Every structure is written in structure tokens, then in C-alpha cells.
Amino acid sequence: MTEGRARTVFIGSGGFGRETLWRLADHPDVELVGVVTAPPRPAGRGGRTAVTPIHEAARHLDVRRILTPARLREPAALDEVLGLAPELLVLADYGQIVPAALLEVPHGALNLHPSLLPRYRGATPIPAAILAGDRETGVTLMRMDAGLDTGPIVAQTRVPLTGDESTPLLEETLEVEAAALLTRYLGPWLRGKITATPQPEDGASMTRPLRREDGRLDPARSGAELERQVRAYQPWPGSFVDTDEGRLIVWRAELEDEGPPPGVFDEGGLGTGDGSRLRLREVQPAGRDRMSWDAYLRGRPAIVGSSIVR
Fold it and tell me: How far is CA 204 from the centre of its chain?
């Protein structure tokens, strides 16, 4: 180590890891020698190339080496990371498999995962917790192994859920909790004062990447399920129905006790499978900006009494 500090490489792409990167750069027990993140990609309607949130944060921190391999498993990319002589890896929200050679650095590879592992392993733990109506979630700090989020647990922090969280807002909360968790336990980990504990087998579940079609609202399901979906599937893939007027994205909704038949619109919103109403508050017609449901009705009053197009 350099002056008693562990040479550290941070690996991540999504916003969940930003606060961790900032804290890592200031941590007295590490020397941040590089950042690995996804390459710039087209973003937005104009197709302008944009860097990842982690790349942007690394620039502000004046990190000397910012690596953007398309595939970390490629030999050239792996050699570039190993060329930094890392003694510790810290990973958060990267989206690629980390090669085994990088897991073997002296202090291991630590991963911050936004769930209470072993629940919600995989790509979409935050939407999964909202969809399930869980009363709590959290962040797990684990030592990575060859499996997908199966490594032993270093520490966890629990976060209560109120039942009105959306994925972007919950991610912001967990981003801060993840950074605090790493800050609290990193020093003891490097000094060998913590032993990681194997994950229990009971309660393990796996999540997958979301697809566009996952966002389709199915009126045969209960109103409570659909309301949770609206909050969980923001910003991607969104929640939507197809109507005679085109696709309608639902950005904000509430649950009401009684409504029209399943899949039928009334002045308040959409009927659901258990007889409740998905009260629509904010919607977005195809090619238009977001608007209130009342504003949408003023322009398209004929939707009242119509059914969604299946």
C-alpha cells in the first residue's frame, strides 16, 4: 500500500454509486487510483453523446485514470485495470460481470447492492422492492465472488419504506445510505477486523433487467399492484396503456376503493381487476408533454367510457 493507504479502483456507471465515489475519494484509508465506467452513449431525443454519472463525478474529482471499456472482460480492458495495481476494488451499479482476476486483489472486491441480500439479487432490486410492497429495504456491502450477488456479507443497513416511494427517489435515498455504509466499515475491513458472513439460502430471489413491455398496465391486476407499478417503473420502462387515441404514459396515480369495470376509463381514471380505481393524476400522451389527468380529459373527453386497447 502507498503511505498506508490501499490503492483503490472504483467501478460503476449509474447514479446509485455517485455519493460512494465522492466519499471514497476523501477516505483516509484509500488512494483512489482509477475509475472504471461504461463508455459514453447517445442520450435524449437529440442523440447527443453523454457520459455516465460516475464519469462525470470522476471528472469533478480530477481522477487521473478514467477507463471506459465496452466490455471489462476483454483482455485489453482487464490488463488496463490491473496495470493500476489495485489492492481494493469498490463496485456500485456497474451492470457488467467483473472478471475473476479482479476479484483476487489483496483486499478483495467490495460491492454495494441496493437490497437486503439475499433478497433481490440481480439487475433491478429497487423496482422489485416497490413492486412487492415491501415495508423495508436497504443496502448490502458484500465481498464479491464469482456468482451474481452471492458473495458473503460485510455489513447491511436497513431503510423503512412508507409506501409512496418511486424508484428515482428511493435510489437517491439508498445512494446516500450506501456511501455511509462503506465509510463506516471500510477502515475496519482493510485492517482485517471484519469477517464477511456467507449469505443465507432462505429468502434468495433474483431480479432481471426490465423490458419495455414490462411497463404495460394490465387492468386484470389489482389496483394496488398497478399503483405500485407506476412508482416502480420510473423512469424506465414507464407505465402505459394503449388507447384509441394512442399510447398514454402514467406518471402518477393513486388507489381508490371503487371504480369502473377493469380496463375502462371514467372521469377519475382506470378500472382494475379487483373493482378499485387507479386514480390517474399525471399522464403523458404520445408525443406530448406531461399533464394532469384533468387537462388530458379537457382535450380528449371521449376517452371516458372507452376501454384500453389490448
Answer: 18
SS3 (DSSP) at 270: strand
- pTM score: 0.94
- CB contact set of 26 (below 8 Å; sequence gap of 6+): none
Examine residue 231 and state whether it is found in any structural domain, yes or no: yes
Q: Is residue 236 within 8 Å of residue 210, measured between CB atoms?
A: yes
What's the domain range around 258? 212-303
Res. 43 pLDDT band, cuts 50 70 90:
confident
* Domain edge (last residue) among 171, 206, 241: 206
**CATH code assigned at 157:** 3.40.50.170
Task: Tell me how crowded residue 203 is: count the other CB atoms within 10 A of its CB.
Answer: 11
> In the structure, what pLDDT confidence band is assigned to residue 3 with cuts at 50, 70 and 90?
low
For residue 99, say if its preceding peptide bond is cis, omega within 30 degrees of 0: no
- Each residue of 110-168: pLDDT tens digit? 999 999 999 999 999 999 999 999 999 999 999 999 999 999 999 999 999 999 999 99
Mean pLDDT score across all residues of the chain: 96
Residue 292, SS3?
strand
What is the CA 149 to chain-centroid distance, rounded? 14
The count of residues in the chain is 310
Q: Please state, in angstroms and rounded to a whole number, the distance separating the CA atoms of residues 114 and 92.
A: 9
pLDDT in tens, 225-240: 999 999 999 999 999 9
Residue with cell 472482460: 73
CA-to-CA distance for 85 and 9, rounded, in angstroms? 9
Confidence of residue 69 (pLDDT cuts 50, 70, 90): very high
Same domain, 115 and 241: no
- How far apart, in Å, do the first and last CA atoms of the chain sit? 61
Q: How far apart are CA 165 and CA 283, in angstroms?
A: 18
C-alpha neighbours within 13 Å on the C-beta side of residue 139: 26
For the chain, give percent helix, strand, coil, nearest 5: 30, 30, 45
Q: Are 151 and 118 in contact (CB under 8 A)?
A: no
